[in-house]
Write a structure and sequence with these properties.
- 2 copies of one chain form a homodimer.
- With about 375 residues, chain A is of the alpha/beta class.
- Chain A folds into 3 domains: about 60 residues, 434 Repressor (Amino-terminal Domain) (Orthogonal Bundle); about 130 residues, Rossmann fold (3-Layer(aba) Sandwich); about 160 residues, Rossmann fold (3-Layer(aba) Sandwich), CATH 3.40.50.
- Chain A has 12 helices and 12 strands.
- In chain A, α7 links the parallel β3 and β4.
- Chain A is elongated.
- The N and C termini of chain A lie far apart (about 65 Å).
- Chains A and B meet through α4, α5 and α11 of A and α4, α5 and α11 of B.
- Chain A binds a DNA duplex (16 and 16 nucleotides) through α2 and α4.
Chain lengths: ~375, ~375
DNA sequence: CTGAAAGCGCTAACAC
DNA sequence: GTGTTAGCGCTTTCAG
């Protein structure tokens, strides 16, 4: 029996619910649910009436109720070891754009602090709260990675690799190597690396790979020096970078060039050098990695990566996985390129200009 | 009758629910709910057993179910006209810290695009999804402000004022005025302002106030010029700032100083001047507003504001309102201070150094 | 202090 | 195609 059409006030409370829409349209609530869900077929005349009722009542379904009833959340969880870094903000932004336009919300899980990370992995308090997960980086602990896998949710990794998992990343070893090689080609021999300290959060994949690239490039010098001697550890972020670089330049044996693991650290180094009255690139060259928004502003030479696109790509892969969970995992490698600006120059006048084929320059 | 203690597998599905906890603890689900809620009194021995069961099962309540049942969401909505700006990221971060530590989640509503804004205000699709709202800025349209008020939710405004609403903000007029006055005291007479274009989103409160401060300072010059002549409009953000400043400096009558409405624009201006080979502060001085993370790095003189604290303060006020809805609205004004760095200097050699009592300098 | 039971608003079989 | 009817997991009267 068709419920009577009674366009009165909402049944209870002051907000229209699916019951009110059904009543106004003269159909059952399941029919309303069907036109809302857009999956089941509904007679177009009926759908029309329902749509009009929805319009008239300005009805919007309560997500909490749908989640409870359906198990689907239309939400993607993002787990990161930081929320404040430039890189994180930008990949999240990229992912947000594509996911949002497909009707998905983002739920950020910041595992910066160890206790947050432990709580997260202990309770796995993400299951049934999201439909899929993007992990920005990966914990070092393989058990935690396994825990992530056994969540049973579509999973995309950003900035790291793991067998059997879909991932989007740059080649960190190569990116770091090319940065250091460039400095070497410019004639530098004492090259320090500014790098994140392993602060016990156990989230060091990228850092380790970049140190590896640094070591590989220096090894080609075969000068018998211990490359790790010149690795300076810093807390993450610009301010910490200033401090770390200051400490570095206060040592008796100053390097002639600094490779910073990522641009925020490089920007900090530039600031420190400025404060110490060390000329850049006259006395010390600096190279970074990311192509931070401000890199151009301070003329920082850097290895660029398409951060925003990396995030967007991860979002798209999540959508693919959501559409077909049995999809084969893929490892997408996004390209990096060296952008030569004014913070680096030849250390020795007689050094040959670099002729490496992999050096591509661009600037916007 | 007490349900039998049966520590078997979860009732259904693979996740423990409140039923499983109740069974394990040998109590009813209402008792479990009570210890979860922390409001009702429960016999401490009972509570202990429930807690142990929760521990053993690694149980975490499903928020969607609680929301549906209780109407409380433990979520605060933040509406902003942008998500990417430095200012927005930082106030959101500040609010997040205090709200998160009180168990609240944040739900971001980005009303950057007009259609997003219209949809938002049309459906008010935030009611029953959040317990309170923080509005970063306010729409120009008073009807929309009214709509916000009639949401019936605790509301805190960040960066703008409205009668009867709790707010946290700097004095934009004064901040802008002091920046321009400083330039004037330095001997500048042709001072341009770089400012956000009213892009039709109708969210221009701060911009208008800052232009007002700029005008007031210039009026003190009483040189008969039309101050609006030197207001240059820009899209928001660093890159747009570069373009706008480039356009400005390409005009026949270049200013000797630029006041940028906020630091990202000022940073863009510095970049543009660098590209155009205009010496800073030799030929042109630049002053901003915010004290952006990178302001120190590029030696930008600016009017600092405690952005992170502003966000945290808004969070705290929301919490207060949540605890007592009848609390009287307050308008908190946070202080700003001029930070003199290297991007500004005396325009005329014979100009007196500024002796204004309100000039406070600091640098970290 | 604790248990029973009635929903919160919606989806998903299952009938018709 | 459309309606009926169980729940989804939790909170909250209301008894006791």
């Amino acid at each position: 029996m068709v419920p009577p059409v009674s366009p009165g006030p909402p049944s209870r409370g002051k907000h229209a619910s699916i019951v009110d829409v059904a009543a106004l349209a003269g159909v059952s609530i399941s029919t309303v649910s069907r036109v809302l869900g857009e999956r089941a077929r509904v007679h177009s005349a009926t759908r029309q009436r329902v749509l009009e009722a929805i319009q008239a009542l300005k009805y919007v379904a309560l997500p909490h109720a749908s989640v409870l009833a359906s198990g689907r959340t239309r939400t993607v969880g993002i787990i990161t070891p930081s929320m404040t870094g430039w890189y994180f903000g930008n990949v999240i932004g990229g992912a947000w754009e594509v996911l949002h336009s497909s009707g998905y919300d983002l739920q950020l899980h910041n595992l910066a602090r160890p206790e947050a990370r432990d709580r997260f992995f202990d309770r796995m308090s993400i299951v049934r709260r999201v439909d899929a997960v993007i992990s920005v980086g990966l914990p070092d602990d393989q058990e935690l990675v396994t825990a992530l896998r056994t969540l049973g949710l579509p999973l995309v990794v950003l900035g790291a690799r793991a067998p059997g998992l879909t991932s989007v990343a740059i080649d960190d070893v190569k990116a770091a190597r090319s940065a250091v090689r460039y400095l070497i080609h410019q004639g530098h021999r004492r090259i320090a690396m500014l790098s994140d300290r392993d602060d016990g959060t156990g989230w060091t994949t990228a850092t380790r790979a970049r140190r590896q690239g640094y070591r590989e490039a220096l090894a080609e010098l075969a000068d018998g020096r211990d490359p790790d001697h010149d690795v300076v550890e810093s807390e993450p972020g610009y301010d910490a970078g200033v401090r770390a670089a200051t400490a570095l330049m206060t040592r008796p044996d100053r390097p002639s060039a600094i490779f910073a693991e990522y641009d925020e650290l490089a920007l900090g180094a530039l600031r420190a050098l400025h404060l110490l009255d060390v000329a850049v690139p006259g006395q010390v060259s600096v190279i970074g990695l990311d192509d931070h928004t401000m890199a151009g502003a301070v003329d920082l030479t850097t290895v660029a990566r398409p951060v925003h696109e990396e995030g967007a790509l991860a979002g798209r892969l999540v959508l693919d996985l959501l559409a077909d969970r049995s999809r084969e995992p893929v490892d997408v490698t996004v390209p990096t390129r060296l952008i030569i600006r004014g913070s680096t120059n030849s250390h020795q006048q007689d050094a040959e200009p670099s002729g490496t084929q992999s050096l591509i320059t661009f600037d916007r």
